[in-house]
Design brief:
Two copies of one chain form a homodimer. Helices cover 41% and strands 19% of the residues of chain A. The first copy, chain A, has 399 residues and is an alpha/beta fold. Chains A, B: This is ROK family transcriptional regulator.
């Protein structure tokens, strides 16, 4: 059983409004819609007929008689899959994008698509089986690499051996019998920030994920901008120093080779071994596998070398962002991903460089903030992405 | 007398099609429009009634009887004003954006808005007077600085003393009795490239103007992207070298302080005075005021120092563009403005840096080309910008 698609843009607008603003009476839906009362009533009736919305309980009174509220079908379920470098998150959301269940398992993306997708499908089927009487309407999938969005396939993803050109979307759609959509994980997280995070009221903003690598989600007029090949936001390989460390991409001095999870691990190990950081040397001696978390802990404990590492990372990231702020003039910059947990020392340094280096017109009202969603951003974004597709007219239909 | 506005999105689509594709018969207009034949006929009749289109002569036959062609009203005129640092261009176009007349006068923008706008209005009134029986439908104005697009006013424009917050749009609209629109000159040139230049088939592209300063027009889905404060594309002050020359903005090592017309003039003078360039020293001795044109001539004549100047300029510009290409993943980069006349040596250097520094996915099919429109880009873009506004529904109207 599949979900019906709305037939015209008025139905699309009504569905998205019920999703983003919650249940509404007919009278409330009439406000701010450019439809006559009778046409609105006809569209609402048609949406009920299609099974996309339902009358439910009573809406707040407006002084007259109490009327029933309209809400999105309570049987609709959306599956969210967020494939990371070393784990996969699977969640189930309702039509209003409330996350009803969320599980995470460790699995290495480099084991290849067959292993990882089978694992994700197992988890998915269990979550769905726990919700009898519901309809799985669609699945949104994020992967840690560039994606050809129209084909739903990864394109030369550096940390995903075996995934290049693999039909990820088709695999999910066939296995689950519903529409699927696949995008880069950073784009999906950006959409999660837009739907439920600190970017809720921003239309043009940047979401910078500082994980193992560094990527950027570019949101324009409320929608993810992907560029002509789906590689927009690939800022990890912008050069910050033409004599800098060699990067995995083969060039010198890329942002990612200076900062990000992998670079911090490398620098933390060097600082521990050389004894430049007593804190990190201690942790290493205790058998800890050093990571960005340890650098953050060291900096917080006042270790001068670790503090300098965070500041230097913030400086190079800030320089890249300063250029992007001048170019793109966003209304907001959100920092997320694991390394953003280096926290306020990192944020202070990024802000200082951007506010100093970009022109006042671009930074006058520009907040630079840390994400508050953490792990939820990916699954909420995946739900939002497939929801946007389901709540749109089919290509070629008249609207 | 003012132009009527279309009443719904179908009328908008018909008008824009007649503008961009030229006169069409009713049968031809029916192709590729998602309207029934009878609804299309009604919309066309209404556009004739509104005076926005007219039946004209005979369209090519399709085997049946010959039918009249429909065309945009032949009486419609659009005024194009392109205010530069040291000159103003004024042109008159018809509804299909053919430039019918084009005049240019030297006038320094730093003389202030009263002087410059009076001069532009004088020129405009003469052009309009030469076209009796026509209707001036609107005016598009470009200025060499950042603009608050919603208000139609320059915002802290560095090279336009006296223009900050000046009501440029209102001045033109009141004086000419028609709608006016004001934008940054680089955005307007980008739109000109989109309408009639090398970017005609590109939807997501960058237009880089290398004049006295350096700016970038950002086109997304066929429309100019301005950012939240109208400063998007302000790439002249991206830092390329943190020990570089002091910039007019107060920072160090900005792109503009390294390259662009003003920087080249400074470096050409130094090279002539020190004798490092024999060619430029000769020109200076002849009393020439050195500019980018002389550097280009010197490089073309084989002067090694001038060639090195062009290459170094291409390198720093290429480094900034490499970052923007990674971030924005455009389908095309167009270089225009006076300094782009340094020509193929510059282009070769920019290409070499961008193709080496950006990831293959972003550069695989990325042409980097020189503009072919030169001075026309600004006036055609101004006509296109006001035309897009006139051929849209009024805010709040039902469509």
């Amino acid at each position: 059983m599949t979900l019906q698609r709305p037939e015209n843009r008025h139905q699309v607008a009504l569905l998205r409004r019920l999703r983003d603003e919650g249940p509404r009476s007919r009278a409330e839906l009439n406000d701010g819609v450019d439809l006559s009362r009778s046409k609105l009533a006809a569209e609402v009736d048609r949406l009920i007929e299609l099974g996309l919305i339902e009358a439910t309980g009573l809406a707040a009174s407006r002084g007259g008689r109490r009327s029933t509220a309209l809400a999105l079908s309570s049987r609709t379920r959306l599956l969210c899959v967020d494939i990371g470098a070393t784990s996969v998150d699977v969640a189930l959301a309702d039509a209003e994008l409330n996350v009803l269940a969320h599980v995470r398992e460790d699995v290495e993306v480099r084991l290849g698509p067959d292993v990882v997708i089978d694992r994700a499908l197992d988890l998915a089927r269990k979550l769905v089986a726990d919700q009898p009487g519901t309809v799985l309407a669609g699945v949104g999938v994020g992967v840690p690499g560039p994606v050809n969005f129209d084909r739903g396939e990864p394109v030369s993803p550096p940390i995903m051996p075996g995934w290049n050109g693999y039909p990820v979307r088709e695999r999910f759609a066939t296995a689950l019998g519903c529409p699927a959509i696949v995008d880069n994980d950073v784009n999906i997280m950006a959409l999660g920030e837009k739907h439920a995070g600190i970017a809720r009221r921003a239309n043009d903003f940047l979401f910078v994920k500082i994980g193992t690598g560094i990527g950027c989600g570019v949101v324009i007029r409320g929608e993810v901008y992907r560029g002509v090949n789906g590689s927009a936001g690939d800022i990890g390989h912008i050069q910050v120093d033409d004599e800098g460390p060699v990067c995995t991409c083969g060039n010198f001095g890329c942002l990612e080779a200076h900062f990000g999870g992998a670079a911090l691990r490398r620098d933390a190990l060097a600082a521990a071994r050389s004894g430049r950081s007593a804190f990190l040397a201690d942790r290493l001696a205790q058998g800890v596998t050093l990571s960005a978390i340890d650098v953050g802990a060291a900096a917080e404990a006042g270790d001068p070398h670790a503090t300098a590492m965070v500041r230097e990372g913030g400086r190079v990231l800030g320089e890249v962002l300063a250029g992007l702020v001048s170019f793109f003039n966003p209304g907001l910059v959100v920092l997320g991903g694991g390394v953003s947990q280096l926290g306020h020392e990192l944020l202070a340094q990024v802000r200082s460089v951007v506010y100093q280096r970009s022109l006042p017109l671009a930074t006058g009202n520009l907040p630079i903030v840390l994400s508050e969603l953490d792990d939820e951003a990916g699954v909420i974004g995946a739900a939002r992405m497939i929801s946007d597709q389901l709540y749109s007219t089919l290509p070629g239909s008249r609207s």
